[in-house]
Amino acid sequence: MSTYQAPKGTFDLIPPKSATFLAVREAMSAVARRAGYGYVETPAFEDTALFKRGVGESSDIVTKEMYTFTTRGGDSLTLRPEGTASVVRAVLQHNLDKGALPVKLYYSGSYFRYERPQKGRYRHFSQVGAEALGSEDPLVDVEIIMLAAEAFRDLGLRQVRLLLNTLGDSECRPVYRAALQQFLRGLDLDEDTRARIDINPLRVLDDKRPEVRAQLTDAPVIADYLCDACKAYHEEVRSLLSIGGVAFEDDPRLVRGLDYYTRTTFEFVHDGLGAQSAIGGGGRYDGLSQELGGPPLPSVGWALGVDRTVLALEAEGVAVPGSGRGVDVFAVPLGEAARHLLFGLVQKLRRAGVSADFAFGGKGLKGAMKAADRSGARYAVVAGERDLSADVVQLKDLESGEQVPVPIDRLVSTIKEKLS
Ligand code: AMP
Question: 17-172+226-316: what CATH class?
Answer without folding.
Answer: alpha beta
